[in-house]
Amino acid sequence: MVKYDTVLIRFGELSTKGKNRRDFIKRLDSNIKWMLREYPDLKYQRTHDRIYIKLQDENPDEISEKLKKVFGISSFSFTEKVHSDIETIQNEGLRIAQETDRKTFKVITRRHDKTFPLNSDGINRAVASVILKNTELKVDVHHPELEIQIEVHEEDTYITYEKIPGAGGYPAGINGKCLLMLSGGIDSPVAAYELMKRGIQVEAVHFASPPYTSDNAKQKVLDLAQMVSIYQGRMKVHIVNFTDLQLEIYKAAGDPYAVTLMRRMMFRIAEQVAEKNGCIALGTGESVGQVASQTLESIACINSTIRIPVLRPLVCMDKVEIINMARKIGTYDTSILPFEDCCTIFDPKNPVTKPTEKKAVGYENKFDWQKMVSDCVEHTTDVVVRPEEKEEVFL
Ligand code: ATP
Ligand code: MG
User: What is the 260 CA–ligand 2 centroid distance (Å)?
Assistant: First the structure.
């Protein structure tokens, strides 16, 4: 068997140039090192458009699973590093072809070293000709079963044939900070993943209503936060004690408008927590039409209370698609644990689907919510979750 001892990493979404490009690569490089921190013997090399990792005796499957979680990688391949001379390159190409059971092939070469005696096309032909001469494989330039990729550098050449898709997106943390409203449900952890994929650093705010909501419910949210934190590193969770305000809302608004008011208050509190913590946007797991509070009219009536932008990565996704994503990122089984949420505790029977601003404000005028909102903002409990630790650190 050929020993693939180097991982070749390709970047995605690198349309940006200059300083942004350098920041992208630097952040990606450090995120990869962080993700592979359990493997101290790996050797890294960075060029302007690739990162190479030299393995010692690490298990390639384990490395592969970890790399699939790093945003900003478009694809990667396990490759063999050989000396840059055409005979060695031909021999290695032939060896790959001889070891495969595939029937058709194509050779693709990138020549970084322009002084190499053959150009890319010449290298393609040289390698293809030895394969055609010594095996049964046929060339298929459009849909080859085997694609041999060759990258020629001055000293070394990398040869590979398998491209493993990366997670795509931008390296976690390069695009500013967002405060995600994290419930214990299925949607918001998926929203966290999608935001992180855009390179956004995610902090979370959670509304709890003890004693109506239990410690188990809170723990479930922290567990979910920890699960998604593997994609960005440590994650701060601000827990808001929402009980008093929620009880007042129910007194003031009654059944149909309770959820509308509750969410307007949540948004106001979240906006202030965001400002206090340097977050430039809010995030939610809302999806249009999913429940009464997510009709367009509801979204408008709730959003009008704040000025900060709200990112809703799931806004047009079907529930089935969201569930599939939750399964993929590993949060689904925890999300469906049957603990009460502050929204379900005071579950109204007839929530309004087309709330108006005028009516909402009318109900709000019945009590001094401003003071209660400020109290909630001031008295959050802040917790940091870390991917590698089961224990949370209370700040
Ligand atoms: P999820 O599955 O994320 O709980 P959902 O379908 O149950 O969403 P809602 O309960 O209407 O929908 O919540 C919509 C969004 O509001 C959630 O995705 C989340 O961003 C936010 N949210 C709801 N409840 C809470 C809470 N207790 N704490 C923080 N954010 C919340
Ligand atoms: Mg919910």
Answer: 14
